[in-house]
Amino acid sequence: MSQNHWTIEDFQVAALEGKDRFHDFALSEPLMHAIADLGFEYCTPVQSEVLPFSLSDYDVTGQAQTGTGKTAAFLITILTHQWENPRDNAAPGTPRALILAPTRELAMQIGGDSEDLARHLGTGTQVVVGGIDFERQRRALESDIVDIVVATPGRLIDFMQRRVVNLRQVEILVIDEADRMLDMGFIPDVRRIVAQTPRRHNRQTMFFSATFNKAVLELASQWTVEPIHVRVDPEQLAPDAVHQKVYLTTRHDKFRMLFNLINQQELTRVIVFSNRRDETRRIHDRLVALGVDCEMLSGEVPQRKRMSTLERFKSGKIKVLVATDVAGRGLHVEGVSHVINYNLPDDPEDYVHRIGRTGRAGEEGTSISFACEDDGFMLPRIEALLGTSLDCQHPPEELLVPLPADKRLARTESMRKDPRLRRPRRSR
After folding, report:
1. Among 262-271, 273-282, 300-309, where is mean pLDDT lowest?
2. Is the pLDDT score of 1 beyond 50?
3. For the chain, which has fewer Cβ within 10 Å, the N-terminal or C-terminal residue?
4. Are 178 and 260 contained in the same domain?
5. Whole-prediction pTM value?
6. Residue 332 resides in a domain
């Protein structure tokens, strides 16, 4: 709680036309101290649109993806509300704010962001997710005063059934990535959880989703009261700092192109996205066999291993990370130079999410996608979402250089076809 004599005068940010500063929202000095520590100066578009209403206790629905700054928007709202309205006689396991996220990685990222923003406020945050020590989480909930709980639905229900968590004092409810919750089949669990919070007229609700189809709109209408709707347009979602390129190729050539890209350009911080777990494993195994410093993130990797892999990637000990979309959710790593889409994703929104892993924090990045006979039909849908045409070209010859493994395979095939080397058919 010590402020080290820090004052708002130590954080000077010039007014800039067309930009909102965090100074403009009358936030508490401890919160502004944390914002200054994090190097935030000007609000992102979604923060500029959300904060005037969320800080005034309106319900908000937001069409925005990870990477747009929405996490800071709802955390600043929660921390400001709790600072301005301190509570007495708090009981363990009784949060004032509940944030629901579809994946462990995203929940843990939000929890880390909450701790960063609350570092000078004394606000307690507890992350409740599966795949991590159940007993340790239970002990923390039973013994600590928790102001904010960030949770995935399944593990939170486990604690609700054991009466370790009481949601009757939740003042702010945040549902993040609602469309992903739908896709992953979590909505029945979310309904059970929301039913244990105060009625919607007696709490503030913030509801975020990358898409707002009919099913998402119905959920938003059930859980919010006359919400202010905020939309971040697709052109704002695709970072200008990301140079996007598509190579028109074949299924057969994809892996040699991937290896040659990494090897010839000496890439040191790259994320490779694949659509399926089994393909992620095959890509990883082949890269490792060729001497590439590589790890993978997918649903089949245990949570502890995923956490240690991510830390090693962030620290630069791993230069290539091969990931599925679900495992890639919540990936916030500074300095990623390249994102390579080994497959085009089945959902255009996932394309935007993927390329947003690079070109962050004012740095430039490169996105390279391989489009083949299996997934090239996705290009028009991605371009429609982006509102622009992608740079599609045939790969340069140097990316099609055969690999050592390919040469051995070619020799094996030629030997198999040589009639002099065929084994005589056995007589019966």
Report:
1. 300-309
2. no
3. C
4. no
5. 0.68
6. yes
Residues 256-274 have pLDDT tens digits of 999 999 999 999 899 999 9
218/85 same-domain check: yes
Mean pLDDT of 335-352: 89
Do 240 and 225 fall into the same domain?
A: no
pLDDT, tens digit, for every residue of 198-229? 999 999 999 999 888 899 999 999 999 999 99
State which residues form the domain around 43.
8-232
- Residue 317's φ and ψ, nearest 5 degrees, are -80, -20
Distance CA 306, CA 292 (A): 19
**In whole angstroms, what is the distance from residue 249 CA to residue 373 CA?**
8
Phi and psi dihedrals of 369, rounded to 5?
A: -115, 140
CATH number of the domain encompassing residue 183: 3.40.50.300
Q: Which 3 state secondary structure label does DSSP give 31? A: helix
Task: Give the DSSP letter of residue 88.
Answer: S
> Do 277 and 297 share a domain, yes or no?
yes
The tokens describing 161, both together, are 């059934």
Secondary structure of residue 229 in the 3-state scheme: strand
Domain count, the chain: 2
